[in-house]
C-alpha cells in the first residue's frame, strides 16, 4: 500500500491539522467555532478540511474509541513465507474487522489489528485466517493494560509524541450499546460529514447527539474526538514497534514511565505467548526516517531505564491497510 506524500499548503492547513486532533468543538456548528478561533470564515474551514480529507492528509473527523469497551480487539501476527506475503496480506485485509495490517521485520512478519462487535466474532476471524492462510497459528496478543494510546503529531516541529500530554487512562468497563448508540458509532467510525451542522446527521436530535458524545468522552468510551491525521502521508514515513520482556512486577511502572516521557506515540502491555513470544511491553515510535526512529527508541530506552532488558525492534516495511476500528454495522466479508 503506497501512499503519496501530501504537502501542507498553508498556515491555515497547519493550524487545522495541529490544533484539532483532540477537543473537537461539540457545538451545533463546530466548524464555525474552529473558524472563530482561527479568525477566518466558516466556509473556508469547511473548504480546507474537505481538501485535507480528499487529498489523504486526514482520514476523517471523528472518534477514537477506547479498545475493548464497545466490542473486542486484539493485535495479531502471522509468520508468512516471503513469497506468499502479499497474497496472505490481501486476504487478511479483506476482512471488515481488520483495520491495520503491516509487514514488519521479524519471523512474525505480518501484523494486524482486528476489532469486532464481540469476542466470539473476533475469534472467528482469527480462526478463519489461520485455517485459510496456512501460515501456522495466529499469534493473538490482546491488550492487558494501556499506558498511552493516543496518537499525536506536531507537524510544525515534526515531532511525534513529544510534547503531547499523556492520554487519560480510565477504567471503562465493557458496555452494550442500544440501537441509537450503534447508529452514532457507525457514523463516528466513518467520520462526520464536513458540513455546517454535522451532528444533525447522526440519526437523532442534534442536541441529543452532542450530549451523547459528551457523555461517552466523560465516561471514557471515547478517547478523543477530532481530526484524525494520516501521519505517513504527512511526513512520518517510518515507524517501529519496540517490545521488551519486563518482569511482571515491574511492567506497569515501566509503561507509565514511557507514557510520561512523551517520546512514544503508543504504549501498552500485552500477554506473552511462550515460547514463541516472550515480550509483554509494547510501544510504537514514529519518525521521519529509520535513523530518526532508531534514535528516538534509543533515547526512550535510556531515559526510562530499559536498556538492560531484552528487547526487539520491529520496523514496519509495508502498510497493507490502515483505518480506524469499526465496531458497528460491519458486514462480514466473503472470501472466494
TrEMBL record:
Residues 72-147, 234-321 form the Siroheme decarboxylase AsnC-like ligand binding domain. It catalyses: siroheme + 2 H(+) = 12,18-didecarboxysiroheme + 2 CO2. The keyword Lyase applies. Residues 14-58 form the Siroheme decarboxylase NirL-like HTH domain. The keyword Lyase applies. GO terms for molecular function: lyase activity. Belongs to the Ahb/Nir family. This is siroheme decarboxylase.
